[in-house]
Target: Inositol-3-phosphate synthase
Amino acid sequence: MHNTIEKATGKLGILTPGLGAVATTLIAGVEAVKKNLAQPVGSLTQMGNIRLGKKSENRNPKIKDFVPLADLHDIVFGGWDVYQDNVFEAAMNAKVLEPMLLHAVRAELEAIKPMKAVFDQSYIANLHGDNIKQAATKADLAKAVMDDIENFKEANDCSRVVIVWCGSTEIYLEPSAVHQTLESFEAGLRNNDPAIAPSMIYAYAALKLGVPFMNGAPNLTCDIPALMQLAKQTDTPIGGKDFKTGQTLMKTILAPGLQARALGVKGWFSSNILGNRDGYVLDHPDNFKTKEVSKLSVLEDILQPESNPELYGEIYHKVRINYYPPAGDNKESWDNIDIFGWLGYSMQIKINFLCRDSILAAPLVLDLALFSDLAKRSGMSGVQEWLSFYFKSPQTETGLHPEHDIFKQLIVLQNTLRQLMGEEIITHMGQDFDQDLVEASL
Ligand SMILES: NC(=O)c1ccc[n+]([C@@H]2O[C@H](COP(=O)([O-])OP(=O)(O)OC[C@H]3O[C@@H](n4cnc5c(N)ncnc54)[C@H](O)[C@@H]3O)[C@@H](O)[C@H]2O)c1
Model:
């Protein structure tokens, strides 16, 4: 299969709708790594290893040395935002990275100015920017985004482009008739159907051009039949939703462990404070609802109360996000978990995670960009479930259940890479590592 992967030659453009805390932390970080000022910690593509063959073979290369990914020096960044700040100014405002580091890459960051955004106030009440496209119809807006992508590609001499949504969380939206087929969606673009969100317009434009689109917010965006159909039609990888960072990352590390040991869970109360712009947008109840649905889905899918009602049938799961400006991007989360063990005796676990939201998210954006480019070059199209590892609420093909357990997600990701490169799949059964020794001793 690996013979069919196109080489990663030429430049890769990474475009992000949204140049806020996450996107600017990614861009400044990659520029700093390119100058050897820091390490890309948290990025599996850059720092992770992958075991190949039997354990006794001792083959454990870095992922970036195993699969043909774009080199960081071949990446060019760009994006759209409703605010006019260039990436240096936006990164300074976001206050995630130290000014000293930002000044070391200032020229590179100042050169990136946001393109005019596709924006609709009814989808995000708490933002008031003026860097916004004006057009008569949503179809015209989609065409304008396609022009932006093609102009960017040409101006920067890119051989390929990928898009990762790093824009704000839109209000909660259920799929409706206009989202069901490509035909109805395109009619909706022409008729300015209010159920077509700005993020869907970017996704449509990307998919029309065969540009991979990954969604880092919990928005519906490309998780609708119309855009899944378009992705297949244009051989384009898509994926989402909502970067798995912070509290949900902890949840999907811990919950599979409790379930593996058949320990019961009665309640899981999760509370957060954060003070960045993301927190301000989520302070609006309609936008919070989108995030809440994404965060709540995780436990049910891991613990499966319907197949184990004795252990998980009574679980009370609550998630709260509170906007608290002094916290800035340094989100603090508290989890109170009521569990029970042998004969029903109760115990409690408390987690207090003092995390840095964008520091956890930036490497995920990099990995998603590089892996979606790899998927495109490998002829993989439609929903990339093997990238579920990166998402709170993984998109699946219609009718399938998402996998939330981070360890299973990692196995699927690594086995996909092994398969792509013509290596044996590893099942983690004993035979994988000591069968040779067993046979030798017979
Ligand atoms: N930081 C994390 O750990 C994390 C985790 C999971 C998901 N997310 C999601 O990632 C997204 C980005 O987070 P952030 O912390 O960078 O937020 P942010 O508010 O700092 O940045 C988002 C940017 O998107 C812009 N924007 C909004 N709508 C837009 C549109 N239609 N077109 C172009 N730009 C638009 C905003 O002006 C803002 O600058 C949010 O949706 C957030 O919920 C973040």
User: Anything to note?
Assistant: Residues 245 and 360 are 6 Å apart (CA to CA). The domain at 247-354 is CATH 3.30.360.10 (Dihydrodipicolinate Reductase; domain 2). The pocket of nicotinamide-adenine-dinucleotide is lined by residues 17-22, 80-83, 94, 117-119, 124, 127, 129, 166-169, 198, 216-217, 242-243, 245-246, 276-278, 281, 357-358, 360-361 (CB under 6 Å). The chain has two domains: 2-243+358-420, 247-354.
